[in-house]
Amino acid sequence: MLSLMIPSPDPSWASFQLGPFTIHSYALCILAGIVAAVLITDARLRRRGVAAWVVLDIALWAVPLGIVFARFYHVFTHVGDYFYAGANLWNAFAIWDGGNAIYGALIGGALGAYIGSRRAGLRFWAFADALAPALLVAQAIGRLGNWFNQELFGVPTTLPWGLSISTTAPMFPDGLPEGTLFHPLFLYEMIWNLCGAAVIVLLERRFGLGWGRTLAVYLIWYGLGRSALEAIRIDPTSDAPLGIPANIWASFAVVAVGVLILVIQSLRHHEPEPSPYLPGRDPSQSHDSPERTAPARAPRTRAGTPANAPKLP
Q: What is the pTM of this model?
């Protein structure tokens, strides 16, 4: 059988020195994903008539809150990894070591996007729909960071595309021999996310969507895929109420929210989506525009004289 074994990078690839600074590959992958999401969302918003780079004003709120909530979610669903006798509590803030949960990022990012959208004069649903496929692309790029950190892998496999993990890696399971191959969950999720981005674009072209329904498709697609992948994940995962990992519970909740949004918005809105701007915030409808500031002309008679002109004695 042809072997397509996926090697893990040398641990030295996880970080490198740039002068006095330590640059982490994981962080670079996250930043690359953010840049891709900004560029894609900006292009999609421009096609809806939104001014160029308004997305940056929203990203200034969404990105920091997304990162903070992503770390909080991870730490508080992995309490035993960070809070124990003799633990270095500063490790709870070491985002460069991995452990930035997408579900926490969605909560914080949604809050930041709502605040940023309101300040920028955009409707939240319009922005969220523009962002939806871009999020999947960003998540796919970010998953490369898990490869550099030798994390996010599944149960052992004999499939030819198994992932090799160094026995010295912190996530390598105890009791397994060197040379054991694992399901490359990071790669599975990358493929799933990129396929999802394409599906969303195709559904938009076919059905129009809008009104938050594009976001709903994103939530359903990602939640279903993530729940399946979490079921075969064996490296340390979140705490497991009722024996089910917290990330699977969260995936079910995300799917439920997506279905709820899709149903409610489909029932409430049958009309085409209006301008992505909030009422009164669309620059094209500004009171300073020529159409609104030009004086009204008086009606003219057949001879060309204004009908309300004073008659000469």
A: 0.84
* DSSP per residue, 105-144: HHHHHHHHHHHHHHHHTB-HHHHHHHHHHHHHHHHHHHTH
3-state secondary structure (DSSP) of residue 82: helix
Dist CA 95 CA 91 (whole Å):
8
Dihedral sign of CA atoms 126, 202, 220, 231 in order: negative
The token pair that represents 212 in the structure block: 């938050």
Report d(CA 303, CA 222) in Å as an integer: 69
Averaged pLDDT for residues 180-184: 95
Nearest to 233 by CA among 193, 182, 190: 182
Tokens of 156: 């052992």
**CA 178, CA 168: separation in Å to the nearest integer?**
10
Weakest mean pLDDT among 6-15, 122-131, 190-199, 253-262: 6-15
Q: Residue 313 above 50 pLDDT?
A: no
- pLDDT tens track for 144-164: 999 999 988 999 999 999 999
Q: What is the maximum alpha-carbon separation in the chain?
A: 112
Q: Comparing C-alpha atoms, which of 193, 192, 215 is closest to residue 261?
A: 215
Structure tokens at 171: 């996530």
Tokens 């030798």 correspond to what residue? 150
> For residue 153, which of 7, 14, 29 has the smallest C-alpha distance?
7
Outline where the chain has alpha helix (H): 25-47, 54-76, 79-82, 102-120, 124-142, 144-148, 185-207, 213-230, 246-268, 290-293
Q: Are 116 and 18 in contact (CB under 8 A)?
A: no
Burial-class residue 19 by CB neighbours within 10 Å (0-12, 13-18, 19+): exposed
Phi, psi dihedral angles at 110 (to 5 degrees): -65, -40
Binding residue numbers = 143
CB 127 within 8 A of CB 207: no
User: What average pLDDT score do residues 189-203 get?
Assistant: 98
Tokens standing for residue 309: 């002109």
